[in-house]
Write a structure and sequence with these properties.
Arylesterase; about 160 residues; 1 helix; Serum_paraoxonase/arylesterase; Neuraminidase
Length: about 160
């Protein structure tokens, strides 16, 4: 049976921990230009937490022949960084790049819409979406619904 199988750990010579991401990543998304956006720092009440620091967002440029150095994205004003607890991320691109970040401050669920400014390595807060129907484990459905309605929302700005 699966429960009695012994797992063999395989050493992969090119795999190594990435500095600044020692505690892992909850989600990532890859932009068409090879830039990877990563969410870190998820604190879940049923899982062990390895850091007390609030969540963060990073980029890694996969198009360069670099050492996979993550760059922390600066967060703009108007956003509560102390309670940032990013779960899943999704992206919508037209001429600009919008991130949808499922956030769990104080064990609640909301979606943050952030504008990605690549030149500044920053995120600009656009809007928080809160609704009673958003809950912790509806991430995939939430993200696809939000992406479908984003074009309408952006037209209303």
């Amino acid at each position: 049976t699966l429960a009695s199988r012994k797992l063999v750990q395989t050493h992969l010579p090119n795999c190594h921990p990435i500095k600044s991401l020692e505690y892992g990543s909850e989600d990532l998304t890859i932009l068409p230009n090879g830039l990877v956006i990563i969410s870190t720092g998820l604190k879940d009440p049923v899982l062990p937490s390895y850091s007390d620091a609030p969540g963060k967002m990073y980029t890694i440029d996969m198009s360069e022949d670099s050492r996979m150095k993550p760059v922390e994205l600066r967060m703009g004003r108007g956003f509560d960084l102390d309670s940032f607890n990013p779960h899943g991320i999704s992206v919508y691109t037209d001429e600009t790049v919008y991130l949808f970040v499922v956030n769990h401050p104080q064990q609640k669920t909301q979606v943050e819409i952030l504008l990605f400014v690549e030149e500044d390595h920053s995120l600009v807060y656009v809007k928080t979406i809160k609704h009673e129907f958003l809950h912790r484990y509806a991430r995939a459905r939430v993200m696809s619904l939000l992406q479908a309605s984003l074009v309408y929302y952006l037209d209303c700005l």
